[in-house]
Amino acid sequence: MSKDWTLKSKRKGKLHPTTSIRLAITFISCVSLIILVFTLSNRVATQPHNEVIKIGVSQTPLTAPFIIAKHLDMFEQANLNVKLIECFGGVACSEALIADQVDYATTSESVVMFKSYQTHDIALLTSFVQSTNDLKLLTLNEDLLLNSNQSTKEAITEPKNNSPITHLVTNSDKKHIKKVGIVKGSASEYYFDTLLVAQGGNVKHIDKVYLSPKQLVDALILNQVDAISIWEPYGYQLNMSASRKITNLGIQGIYQLSFNLIAKRSGLSPDNNIKNNQVISLINVLEQSINWINSHPDAAMLIVAKHLDVPLNQIKWSWNDYIFRLSIGNSLLSSLQTQSHWAKQGGLVHGQEPNFREVIYRQPFEKAKAFEDAKW
């Protein structure tokens, strides 16, 4: 039996030459298929441009670096398949991020602070623009004061020598704000409260009317509020649509607004190289776009005006107030902490204060900076 088994085995092991060739071809085909599948899967994993990257972009000139990068195909040149999702204001953009409607969002540091109390999944990746004059407190009543304890000085021209003489205007000549239109949980609210404190007022004496950015202008024109705390381009829109004189009760330089790129921190673990490399690529494109903006301001304004579908003069209205640059320094951390303390004291947020050092996710920015030869 053993001998018969051995012989049978030998007979089975002796293959016809044609069969051997067929097996060899089959083997080579299988190996080639495996290599092809591995190569394709690896290519998909390492080439983020195959994936649609949705960025919630606030419809404001502040987001010009994204608008310019898209218009000039800078994202495509960096192998990034980016789709800009329009949203009105940083609050709406951040909520789209939290709801997984976008992968990234643009928003002010005030919104970052508020949303960090709502979720611990916010990561601030970089700031890309700053302005000390984007926010304004606007009214159509030139005899209005921010608070009842305030006095103002007005320059009145004497008819004789045509020289301005300053007169003190007291509360008997002025009225104070009773209702102010505000975008809740945004830079609009922080800016107003900062102004009020600076001028000795008390927020308890004022009724805050919370509205969307698009509703504020109409509310002021229809006398539903005495003033509105708002950012551009809504100041320009009010200037174009109001039949009465507009007065800015704000103080330039009292608050520096920053606009930032944010993402969900849960998707940015150190071992997620694909996502981290994607963020680095986005930051590099923003730097390239900002350099182009600073070198071609007139062309940049034209592109932004066309994208936002607004008159060129509306963009020019506030353009010189913007400082386009990438940063993620200590001033940003200090601003988040200061605004957090304000929100806590005002009862606008609840719970334990977030660790804003962790909210600021520096690693991609620092790697992108290290890869660039130019100084940021």
Describe the structure.
With 376 residues, this protein is α/β, with parallel strands linked by helices. It has 15 helices and 15 strands. It has helices at 2-13, 17-46, 64-71, 74-77, 90-98, 109-118, 187-198, 213-221, 234-241, 273-295, 297-308, 312-319, 330-345, 356-359, 363-371, and strands at 52-58, 81-87, 104-108, 122-131, 135-139, 144-145, 152-157, 164-169, 175-176, 179-182, 207-210, 227-231, 247-248, 257-264, 322-327. It has a six-stranded mixed β-sheet with strand order 2-1-3-14-4-15, sandwiched between helices. A five-stranded mixed β-sheet has the order 11-10-12-5-13. Helix 3 (64-71) packs across helix 10 (273-295), helix 6 crosses helix 13 and helix 11 packs across helix 12. The model is unreliable at 1-15, 35-49 and 151-172 (pLDDT under 50).
Topology, please?
Layout: H1 2-13, H2 17-46, E1 52-58, H3 64-71, H4 74-77, E2 81-87, H5 90-98, E3 104-108, H6 109-118, E4 122-131, E5 135-139, E6 144-145, E7 152-157, E8 164-169, E9 175-176, E10 179-182, H7 187-198, E11 207-210, H8 213-221, E12 227-231, H9 234-241, E13 247-248, E14 257-264, H10 273-295, H11 297-308, H12 312-319, E15 322-327, H13 330-345, H14 356-359, H15 363-371
Parallel strand pairs: 1-2, 1-3, 6-9, 10-11, 10-12
Antiparallel strand pairs: 3-14, 4-14, 4-15, 5-12, 5-13, 7-8
